[in-house]
Amino acid sequence: MEERKIFSYDLTQRSAGKGKCLEMYLGIRYNYVRLCVPGRGSIMEAMDRPYEKKRISTICLGLLILLAGSILASLVFSLLLHFLMPETARNLNVDWWLSAAAQYLVGFPLCAVFISLVPADRMEEYPVSAGAFLSFFLTSCLLMFVGNMVGNQLNDLAAELLGHEPTAFAAEQMMESSLVYSILVTALAAPVWEEIIFRKMLIDRLNRLGDSAAIGISAILFALFHANLQQFFYALTVGWLFGYVYARSGRIRYSIILHMALNFFFGVLPVLAFRSGDGYYSWLIAWLEMIAAACGVVCLIWQAGRIRLRKGWIELPEDGWLRLAFGNAGMAVLLAGCLILFCLNFMG
Fold first, then answer.
1. Separation between Cα atoms, residue 124 and residue 79, nearest integer Å
2. Can you give the pTM of this predicted structure?
3. Of 69, 227, 254, 278, which one's alpha carbon is 20 to 30 angstroms from that of 103?
4. Is 48 part of a structural domain of the chain?
């Protein structure tokens, strides 16, 4: 895969000011002319850093709108249903449908509109072979399997330390939901919207900082979005993998299909087995998940030596991208909101 092309020219021009960098996009994907004027400190610190922090802050506020808009819309839908059809409103499955409608019909669209205010860069597109795609899927099964165990253990440990009954927020919703809900929401709507927002829209706006920063920030925000300990760790690692697939291919359909397949394997098949009433099917699905995870170990080792993270055309500061990502107002407000949701979900 070819590297991005960046052309740099040094220019001494007092009228432009010291330590400034003028960047002109030529209309060719990832081909830039950079006119740099020598000055004190790095270009990032002198000119780009405040602007990049503002961009990341705006993205975080967009995700906060997603969370807040989903909650408020869910409350409005629930109140309307209780007023119009009080008997139907007492059904737990109805509450989940209302929550899904609020999130995917209100929260995500509002978030997409807000984040689109931040200019995006175009991604180069490359195909992913069938073998590489299968390898990515099996690796995601491993990350899902291990991350789920880590999340459950830490959730139980935290509950024991705090003297609280452990809650299985995600597992309970998955097993008690209807099959139609599992297919339409878990396997279809969630992967499409989550990949569009957390991979397509975020990485398109962050890849200027390089793959490491774009994928890392996207994965962290994706994990925070789930707002519970059980899902945090697998969302973080699987989110990184999906982000890497999108960053390397530039085609969102690959990560969407991977996400759908993973959610179907770990979210829909267990529901089918559980509702069959036959313990054999649940045992079979559990063994299939373990076999896929074991194959994922081999695929992870194979993929690890082939990982290539490209640098962005914005020069990062010496302290890296973490301080840039977390040192802004939008991220601070988003972290506070997610912490509140973590606590509420933990307490049940």
1. 46
2. 0.84
3. 254
4. no
Beta strands 21-25 and 5-10: pairing type? unpaired
Taking all residues of the chain, what is their mean pLDDT, rounded to a whole number?
83
Give the confidence band of 328 by pLDDT, cuts at 50, 70, 90.
Answer: very high
The verdict on 160 and 11 lying in the same domain is no
Same domain, 245 and 153: yes
Residue 321 in this model has a pLDDT that exceeds 70: yes
Q: In what order do the strands lie in the sheet with 31-36?
A: 5-10, 31-36, 21-25
User: What is the total count of domains within the chain?
Assistant: 2
Residue 94 lies in a domain: no
17 and 136 together in one domain: no
- Alpha carbon 169 to its chain centroid, in Å, reads 19
Token pair 């807040």: residue: 68
- Domain of 216? 122-347
Give residue-wise pLDDT tens across range 195-220. Answer: 999 999 999 999 999 999 999 999 99
Would you state the structure tokens that stand for residue 203, as one six-digit string?
Answer: 């990485």
Residues 155 and 287 in one domain: yes
Q: Answer whether residue 26 shows pLDDT above 50.
A: no
DSSP 163: T
Rounded to an integer, the average pLDDT of 328-335 is 94
Q: Let me know if residue 163 belongs to a domain.
A: yes
8 shares a domain with 156: no
Q: Is the pLDDT of residue 105 over 60?
A: yes
Q: How far is it, in rounded angstroms, from Cα 321 to Cα 41?
A: 17
27 dihedral zone (left: phi>0; alpha: psi -120 to 50; beta): left
Collapsed DSSP state (helix, strand, coil) of residue 23: strand
* Phi, psi (degrees; rounded to nearest 5) at 6: -130, 125
User: What CA–CA distance (Å, rounded) separates 344 from 341?
Assistant: 5
Nearest alpha carbon to residue 292 among 188, 154, 115, 143: 143
Between the two ends of the chain, the Cα-to-Cα distance in Å is 48
Residues 34 and 138 both lie in one domain: no
